[in-house]
């Protein structure tokens, strides 16, 4: 934590005692205090993004320790990432492992004088921090110097940011997106994140394995030969292209054949296998 604070002060020399306390507060508690309800969080976020200026030169995020980061709203706006996606990422990040008492203890262990700040002033802020209703805000000096505009999200969601930036450019368009990658490369994890953030439907190619009877050496020697491409084409691709309801039968590894249909419609995100790149 000490090294994080020193790095923060070096990056933001106008930071005051309350800015350091806010950093510790967010690093340990994340963004849960901003989430009384999704709609409220979205309304406040939308208003702030509407008022800020898009800036592609700023970093997209800044790590603040304890698996949290600050997501830059000006850069998000420049990338076209909508407020509703950011609000959903905040909801997905509301998993603090610490409590306010831990934040107070951590702040009391900081030597503010050694940081070039006032220990006396920090003690006053820490006393206020013991009140559950108190939420630390940036100092006027910090606001004037840096115009902070961000939201705190879990650092685990950084895995999805490159794909989200790509998807942001496709908003308003009906798209079929294929995701390829080696085994255990994170395809399913990424697809799950993108589904939760954007609302896109997900179809897993694992649901289109071929039955054991068709797994001949000749068939498995073909790249992607373990997938039932014929069934995938008829149950997913053709209905999608003709804008019809998609009804597909997920393959059951227990029964060794497709089972009852699952309905889906709208834009699709496919989690596939083997190739090593995001398309």
Number of separate helices: 12
Coarse morphology: elongated
> What's the β-strand tally?
10
Structural class: alpha/beta
Radius of gyration, whole Å: 24 Å
Structure at a glance:
The protein is of the alpha/beta class and 279 residues long. The protein is 42% helix and 13% strand. Mean pLDDT is 87; it is low at 272-279.
Describe this structure in words.
This protein is an alpha/beta fold and 279 residues long. Helices cover 42% and strands 13% of the residues. It contains twelve helices and ten strands. It has helices spanning 2-11, 17-29, 38-51, 73-79, 83-92, 100-108, 119-129, 140-146, 161-168, 187-198, 217-220, 229-241, and strands at 61-65, 68-72, 150-154, 176-179, 201-204, 246-248, 251-252, 257-258, 262-264, 268-271. Strands 1-2-3 form a three-stranded antiparallel β-sheet. Strands 4-10-5 form a three-stranded parallel β-sheet, with helices on one face. Helix 2 (17-29) packs across helix 6 (100-108) and helix 3 packs across helix 5. The longest helix is centred in the first third of the chain and has 14 residues, at 38-51. It starts with a helix and ends in an 8-residue tail after the last strand. 29% of the residues are buried. Residues 272-279 have low confidence and may be disordered.
